[in-house]
């Protein structure tokens, strides 16, 4: 009996000794959180959730409101990125095509690729294919809603809220630059042609002749139409999104290819033509937090996995399958995080980042996520370059940061810090979070 008691006592001591360091670390991190975050005036009137996880032990080092829901802003892109990594191949499907054996007519089915005719992607295999085709029939179904649920509708013209579409062209954006009183550079040039056919473009010249020659212009359009007007104003350069209705898409293709494009109701999935390496899309998506790329990534993943484009159905399917073990089921609404309907917990992001690390190479992850001094972290963590890889998230009064941290002891940690409903600016919140993350790196 005495030996049994001694053995039980020894096991208890071992268990206690293992538990004590974990408990001590939790207390230490909580003390630092109290000093660096909770007491900070930029955060104290809002709400904050924190989760810090050690994947080598499979244990949380610290949780504070980690199972509570927050608006994650662009941290939502981490889920869209995972969907892209999981369901898209090494190269993006630019479109699918089918050539009728008898008529030799080419039917093309869009695949949601946002890189088509974007100047930053000089290699355009889809364009090369279309230039060689004789008669082109565009199969487009109008099933993709241009704007997501919960988006700020009054920002519809801004390029950060570019509408989604089945077949993006020129990034669904119109770029303009003031050259002189009688000249405005317009890209794509097709918009200048259609403006010249009406009164809108002529009006800017007439108005500005009554003013100083270097005054500039401003562009306006309706919410769900492309009645674009160039008006007198003070803008020298302006980028707006255009509404991607199928007729406009066909006209832009006709103007680019110098051949007729017919819109067809005949649907054939056909053979894929690949465009860009997938990571060449994911990297700018994460570095500059590109909302348009994120939305299209989720649509492309849906197209490959489900056979059609539906962000809602893709999200629902993922949450029931590959993401079914997520700690708290999120309310996931869009691909970019523009929607304030999105709700995730800090533990959700930690779990996803750990899953991403386990399924894909660390080198690939480091190449895609920005580190200190890069992308959306360009003004932060400059001394931590190569030791932090993370995704930011910002909406008014909401700020987020989730990612990987390599500590001074060469330990890899996964963290998520979500801050909501603070009344002030985002920069003081980001700086407070930066101090906390730097402290984690120094001490653990």
Query: Any idea of the CATH topology of one domain?
Result: Beta-lactamase
State the share of residues found in helices, binned by percent: 25-40%
> How many β-strand stretches?
15
Instruction: Provide the CATH architecture of one domain.
Output: 3-Layer(aba) Sandwich
Principal-axis shape: globular
The CATH homologous superfamily of one domain is named DD-peptidase/beta-lactamase superfamily
| SS-based class | alpha+beta
Unreliable stretches (pLDDT < 50, length at least 5) are 9-20, 201-211
Major sheet details:
5 strands, antiparallel
- Mean pLDDT score, rounded? 90
| Cα end-to-end separation | 43 Å
Q: What would CATH call the class of one domain?
A: Alpha Beta
Strand order of the largest sheet: 2-1-15-14-13
Q: Give the H and E element order.
A: HEEHEEHEEEHHEEEHEEHHHHHEEEH
Q: Whole-number radius of gyration?
A: 26 Å
